[in-house]
Design a protein that fits this description.
With 129 residues, the chain is α+β, with helices and mostly antiparallel strands. It has a four-stranded mixed beta sheet, sandwiched between helices. Helix 2 packs across helix 4. The longest helix has 18 residues. The two termini are 25 Å apart.
Length: 129
C-alpha cells in the first residue's frame, strides 16, 4: 500500500529544498526533515491548501538487501497512512531511516509511535496530539 499520489514528494528539487532549508528532528530510528509551507499574504477561499508531501529516504547503508529496505519502507508507509488525516496541509517532509532500524526488527506500531512523536515536535500534526 503506497501513499496516495497527492501526498508523495517526488522531484529532486523538492527533496533538495527540504534538505537545504528544512528543520531537523531525530528519534532512535528516524531523522525527520520538515519544510514549513510558505506563508501566503492573501488567504483565498476558493483554493484549498496543498497536501503535505512526504518522501522516504533509505540508504543502502541501512541494509545491502533491497528486500529489507523495501520492508522498512512498507512499514513506514503503513504507519504514515494512519497519520494522513491528522497532518497540517502544505508541509514537505522527508523521513530518513537510520542504520539501526534494520537491526532492531521494528514493527509498524513502533514506527507509528515514533513518527507521531516526531511530527508533534515539528507541529505537523493537527492539534499537536
Amino acid at each position: 500500500m503506497a501513499l496516495p499520489k497527492a501526498y508523495r514528494l517526488k522531484s529532486r528539487q523538492d527533496f533538495q529544498a527540504v534538505f537545504r532549508e528544512g528543520i531537523r528532528r531525530h528519534s532512535s530510528h528516524f531523522t525527520l526533515r520538515a519544510l514549513k509551507p510558505p506563508l501566503s499574504t492573501e488567504p483565498s477561499l476558493d483554493t484549498a491548501p496543498p497536501a503535505t508531501k512526504i518522501g522516504i529516504a533509505i540508504s543502502t547503508k541501512v541494509s545491502k538487501r533491497a528486500v529489507v529496505r523495501n520492508k522498512i519502507k512498507r512499514q513506514m508507509t503503513a504507519a504514515l497512512y494512519q497519520l494522513l488525516p491528522e497532518l497540517v496541509p502544505g508541509w514537505r517532509l522527508v523521513l530518513i531511516v537510520k542504520t539501526t532500524t534494520a537491526e532492531s526488527e521494528c514493527q509498524t506500531h513502533k514506527f507509528l509511535q515514533e513518527l507521531k512523536q516526531l511530527l508533534t515536535q515539528t507541529e505537523v500534526l493537527n492539534g499537536n496530539s
